[in-house]
Amino acid sequence: MDQSTGKRTVTRIGVAVLAIAIIFAGAPELRAQQGGGSDPEHRLPLTWDRWLDHAEIGERMRLMADTWPDFLTLTSLGKSYGGRDLWMMTINNPRTGAERTKAAMFIEANVHGNEIQGGEVCLYTIWYLMENYGRIDEITRLVDERVFYIVPTVNPDGRDYFMHETGSGSRTGHVPVDSDGDGLFDEDGPDDLNGNGMIEQIRKYVPGEGTHRISHDDPRIMETVPSGEMGDWILLGSEGIDNDGDGRVNEDPVGGYDPNRNYGADWQPNYIQGGSMNYPFELPESRATNDFWMSHPNIAGFQSYHNSGGMILRGPGTAWHGTYPREDIRVYDELGETGERILPYYDYLIIWQGLYTVHGGSIDWTSDGLGVVSFSNELWSGGQYFGSPLLREQQQGPDSPISGQKSRFFFDDFVELGDNYVEWAPFDHPEYGEVELGGWKKYFARINPRFMSMELFHRNMAFTLYHADQMPLMSIGEATVENVGGNVFRVRVDIRNERLIPTITVRARQNNVVRPDLLTVDGNVEVIAAGWVPNKFRPGPTDRIDQEELDRIIIRSGHPGRTTRTIEYLVRGSGTMTVTYSAVKGGTVSTTVRLR
Fold first, then answer.
1. Nearest-5° angle of CA 159, CA 303, CA 339?
2. Could you report the per-residue pLDDT of 367-392, keeping only the tens digit for each?
3. Is-contact 391 130, C-beta < 8 A?
4. What stretches of 178-310 adopt beta strand conformation (E)?
5. Which of 186, 208, 226, 435 is the one with CA 20 to 30 A from 378?
6. pLDDT tens digits for range 238-280
7. For residue 37, with 0-12 CB atoms within 10 Å meaning exposed, 13-18 middle and 19 or more buried, which class applies?
8. What CATH number does domain 474-595 carry, 1.10.10.10, 2.60.40.3250, 3.60.15.10, 2.60.40.1510?
């Protein structure tokens, strides 16, 4: 990847000391910072040290909407299969423009039911933007210039199942699926046989006939024996029984599909892409979100928070898609490489190269089908357990207490004080006989430790806000007017995209999925000719525009990022003339000049 040399248009600044009262009813207060470097007083104090279920997410969103009614609007995109609302918060300052006239950032999380922490990142983002409006200049500017659509959980059924039931495997939603092909649906899932509220692993002692042995380093660790040797233990999978009498255990749990394989771009049937369902947008959750996306073409940025791995992922999801156009790669690389600096331990990767092949994923659909610059962050990196260079070096030594599988046990024993592991214990299994049950609790490794939440929330939010800041932002300069004879005038207007992302990506133009930008003229004038000025500081011919309606110029290529272009008109008329540049994903700007 090319090293980015671009810099942010606006530098983050420190917190100013303000002593100003509320500027209008219902708006975030401009609060004076406390002396001695202490935190400012929050309008809505919230804690971030626990995971919320769907009902609690809804309560927190209503509380924030009630606290900042001039900026926040709480709506539901629709219902999940289980009848739960897909809550969405819209953040917009109506005093700086209507929602549809601004570039919008769509932020979602919890597409997979057991990937919960993204929901809290979404809630934290709403809260942080509102608490710091009027206090941090950059936050104020972002809220004034942009619109945010934030959906903390796209899969509320899966979230609640993961949080309130025993197992960790509720990646799916709850539409019934016959996973084992026996004509029954969801009839053989895990069973909490010992009633301790967790689904544990099963091991059985079989002297000299097994595939595993107990590690000499730690009796909790099971090691595969070398080829040609026999161990004393076998592993029998997760806790459960054969509920449907077909000789298999846990083979048809609740759901059984992948919600992030049901979108329209490169959707493939189940025999190619497991979990894709019968057709694109079959699931009520993916259909509801897509209906919203299709009706809001002002969405210019997309972030989908997922679970673990420490990755900033972009498309494409499959190798056969090829590479993105060079101009688009330049944009993604600058965003992604900056993200690597904002997010230590995260790597900027292409989905199919750095993770695995994904057909029918939301990143490809929003990018290819909607023309949106899209990322998916895998939120938790296990490298953060042992962050210093010294400890990372120690992990490489085979005899180190923090190498290999031992690292997790060390972290749990010494940092989380043993909270995440259930020791092996005997159990009389109704089908396997005498076995032992034990293993990690469902949150460990998948979900970050709670005491590390704030940094994870804030850094990921910061990257997404940076992405939102780099969405197209059109501006129009002061026009110059020259009378060239009689009532004929030469009018020049500078039109600029202030940010990195173009109004139309090359990929979007190739797929013809974004309305072209429009450059229009209004007034008592006739446009005789129009063209782009190659260099406004050097005399020379313009690049003439050959279109039938020069008072309504169609710009199919959009406007590149961080670029100023000068349009020149030759017009006949009198009075005033208004020039307007309209970009679906970059906003609408205009200027009015007097012809004289």
1. 120
2. 999 999 999 999 988 888 877 788 88
3. no
4. 201-210, 212-214, 222-224, 231-238, 299-305
5. 186
6. 999 988 888 898 887 888 899 999 999 999 999 999 999 999 9
7. exposed
8. 2.60.40.1510
